[in-house]
Structures are given as C-alpha cells and as structure tokens.
Design a protein that fits this description.
The protein is an all-alpha fold. About 70% of the residues lie in helices and about 0% in strands. Strands 1-2 form a two-stranded antiparallel ribbon. It starts with 5 loop residues before the first strand and ends with a helix.
Amino acid sequence: MFNPPQFWCGRDAEPLRRVTWIELFFDLVFVAAVAQLGTRFAAGVTPAGVAHYGALFLLVWWAWNGYAVYATRFHSDDAVDWTLTLLQMFAVTFMAANAEGTLDSESTAGFVAAFAIMRILLVLQYLRAAAIVPARRLALECATGIGVGAALWLLSALVPMPMRVWLWAAAVLVEAVTTIVTARHTETLPPDAEHLPERVGLFTLIFFGESMIAVMKGIQGQPTWSLSAASAAFLGLGAIFGAWAWYFGPARAATPRHVRTRGDVRAFEAWQFVHLPLYIGLALFGVVIEHVIVHGGLAAIHRPEAVALGAASAAVVASLVALTRMATP
C-alpha cells in the first residue's frame, strides 16, 4: 500500500522497464489539454493567438516532461504516488479549463496557478525519492529548483501586469538553471535507456492521432464539399502520415538511447528538447488545417493561416531532420 520509490539508474544490469497504465492515462490528459488550447482559434488564426498558444503550449509540455523524467528514474506503485499523480492530472484539467483569454487575463492567471500547483506536487514526489541514497543529491536539487520556480509561477498569478511578466521571466530562468545544474547527474545516474524513449514515442504517437482527428473534424465541418477543401484534407492527411513514417522510420526517434559518456548526455538532452518544436508543429498544423478545411480549403486561405501553416510545417520538418541526424546507428 505504501512503498518507497524504486530507483532505476538505466544500467544494463537492471530489468527491462515498460510504460505503466497510469503513465498512459497521464499522457491522455495532457493531449486533452493541448486540444483545449486549440479552441482559441475558433474565431480565426491571428499572430497574437499563435504566440499565446505557443507560450501556453510550452508550459503544458514542460509540465509533462517534468513528470516523465521523474517517472523514468523513480518508480512507485503505491497509494501516495498514485494520489500525487492523480492530483497532477487534476491540475492539468484546470490548466486546460483556463487556456482561453489574453496574457493579462484572469484565465491565464488561473492557467499559471494550476501549472505551479502541478510543479509543487512534483516536488513532493522528488522529496519522497530523496530517501534513496544514491539519488539523494539529484532528487534534492530537482525539488529545490522546481520548488523555487513553482513559487514564482504561483506568485505571478496573484499580481497584475507588467509585474506578472517579470515573475514569469524569473521563473523561466530558475527552471533553466535547474535543468542545467541537474544535467550533470545524467552521466552517472542515467535514465532508463528504453523507458523514456518509449514514453516519448507513445506521446508523439498520440499527437499524430490528434492531428488526424483535427483533419477529420475539418472534413466533418465542411458545409459545401469542394475541390479546394478536399485538396486541403488530403494534403493534411498525407503530411501527417509522412511525418509519422519519418519519425518512426529514418529518424528512429523512439529507439533506446543509452547514456554512457558525456557526449551521450549532450545527445540525450538534445533529443529530448527537439521534441518541443515537433509537438508544437504537429498540434498547430492540426488546428490550422482543420480551420482551413472548414472555411473552404486552400483556395480560401488567408495570410495569417498560411503563415501559421507554413511555420508549423517548418517546425515539424526541422525537428525530424534534427532527430534523423541524432538517430542511433
């Protein structure tokens, strides 16, 4: 019922790990949050809307990545860990519910507050993991850095602009420094070589599915089927399928990633962070192509939509090129 976390150092002698059911459930909640972010484009695609979308998406991905990195090193299947994970899922739903409005709105303040609460819950998980002697320093450094950042995020939700922006900048700086400081443990305490790539691959697969659903919704919402709308739909489906085939084919992005040297550490960090533009690109591509199909297809596309579609496509292609160059031999 109450078992301390188990530490998985990623060494070859350790037994094989697989993604758990609660991790998959956790991922589905996050994809639902990303889908909710896309509702801000219901009235049209604008540069300001895309910028706001990208900022909130970054926090959603960072929240997911934080838990994924923790779970790949520390595994616990007891009531405490399940409760903390479930509360984080609740926090994600509140993030999704407050994903509308401008950066100075009350809804964005609620979004950031929910993000801060989720990070605080992650701190509690790291404090439990600090009982493991080999990983104590890593766990305490993560708990300290994430905790300070969470306090700044939470405080920013209580103050008006422009102080809110300055606190966001400070929180981002703390998060970045924490990531850099704790990265030195990756060589001596590497994450599981198969668990995190599998987790990331499954999460990516869900994004491909969400983009396909967006295209289908666009087809369903097309009031007068036209050649232009049909072309946009087929182009969207083909592009998504092509990106999927590239990711799991030549890029081999979900294959095991062993960390044994300092060079492996740098490659692992690059592999991890290059997924951010890939996810943003896939999510934005799906949202925009749905909007384009509904409103008449490529012949009726407006400049902001064309720019957003081009930027999303470029982000996906650039990420896949980078992942291909990082592909394990």
